Amino acid sequence: MEFTTRFFQAPRQSFFLLGPRGTGKSLFAQKAFPEALRIDLLEPDVFRTYSARPERLRELVLGRPDVRNIVIDEVQKVPELLPAVHALIERRRGLRFILTGSSARKLKRAGVDLLGGRAVMRSLHPYMAAELGSRFSLDEALSHGLLPLVLAADEPRDVLRAYAALYLREEVQLEGLVRSVGAFSRFLEAVSFSHAAPVNLAAVARDCQVERKTVEGYVEVLEDLLLAFRLPVFTRRAKRELAAHPKLFFFDAGVYRSLRPSGPLDSPEEIAGPALEGLVAQHLRAWIAYTDAEHQLFCWRTRSGVEVDLVLYGARGLFAFEVKNAARLRGGDLRGLKSFREDYPDATCALLYRGPERLLVDGIPCLPVGDFLTRLHPGELASAIAE
Fold first, then answer.
1. How many domains does the chain have?
2. Is the pTM value of this prediction over 0.85?
3. List of the chain residues with pLDDT < 70
4. Tens-place pLDDT, residues 352-374
5. Are residues 147 and 81 in the same domain?
6. Do 226 and 293 belong to one domain?
7. What is the 3-state secondary structure (H, E, C) of the chain?
8. Does residue 323 lie in a domain region?
């Protein structure tokens, strides 16, 4: 697959670039900083060298006065390098470090020096539809997701099948993040049924035959490894009694599909519906990450069961989205958006569905979801909804 230009814009100062494996962090760094000094901590010999002597980084950089950019891939493997990075930034003006990582867990748990604000935090996500342009296929995105690693493969299904095993082997087991890898594997399968829904920790614990507190820890591991995220309920100036439990999403629709068991008792809608909502959610998260303004993503659900799938709030406004995996709209499909609009009259509301036509129903735009995703560019959200 040809190289795809990403919407992500590198900061001028040193920065952490975090994202799950396969999102293209290393490839981006190679293309954006071709002349950079590179240290890949996934290479066993490089890992051994810097694990034994982190101060070697200082010697290497001071020996190269011509170098301005230094890329350290998978920096969480040797977090002890960060004090040396900090000292080098202080010592040499104009030096920029690009610190990629697929796990925030070890950096946080080690309590190491996170450069005292001298490096900003950024994230890279699976492709956005607009990055792929004419190569974007909604059906393919729902089946295989939008990970660059997967889309570049000859057999994307096989790569997805091995993806979770890679994390289990190299992140969970090797780093000793959980006591029982078997129980964590059962958890991954059980929690996949909660994708795009409030997660019932007690029910997942029963399925996995572990304690509820253990499941809480497992969910935190998923979040720290950047494999999943939770969306809190939007509560600003609430006018109704709202539910409290957040929704859980895997970071990529294809990864969700690879983990979700399916059989003759599972209807296609049970799997495809959450996959579509997750696809929209991952696009909005990428939009937030690549847009130069503060925004947050939420869900909205009342105690009586009225809900809106996704709510985006921030500098560009308040937006509410309902996602329907259906080609035709039904009478009750707009109920949640209408209720949300009653409470927040200034909100921009839209329903995204699988039909081919752009409709306006009771003042609410109803858009083909593929059309919306391909029009979604960083900094531009209202224009992706408007005609």
1. 2
2. yes
3. 1-2, 108-114, 116, 174-175, 264-265, 387
4. 999 999 999 999 999 999 999 99
5. no
6. yes
7. CCCCCCCCCCCCCCEEEECCCCCCHHHHHHHHCCCCEEEECCCHHHHHHHHHCCCHHHHHHHCCCCCCEEEEECHHHCHHHHHHHHHHHHHCCCCEEEEEECCCHHHHHHCCCCHHHCCEEEECCCCCHHHHHHHCCHHHHHHHCCCHHHHCCCCHHHHHHHHHHHHHHHHHHCCCCCCCHHHHHHHHHHHHHHECEECCHHHHHHHHCCCHHHHHHHHHHHHHCCCEEEECECCCCCCCCECCCCEEEECCHHHHHHHCCCCCCCCHHHHHHHHHHHHHHHHHHHHHHHCCCCEEEEEEEECCCCEEEEEEEECCEEEEEEECCCCCCCHHHHHHHHHHHHHCCCCEEEEEECCCCCEEECCEEEEEHHHHHHHCECCECHHHHCC
8. yes
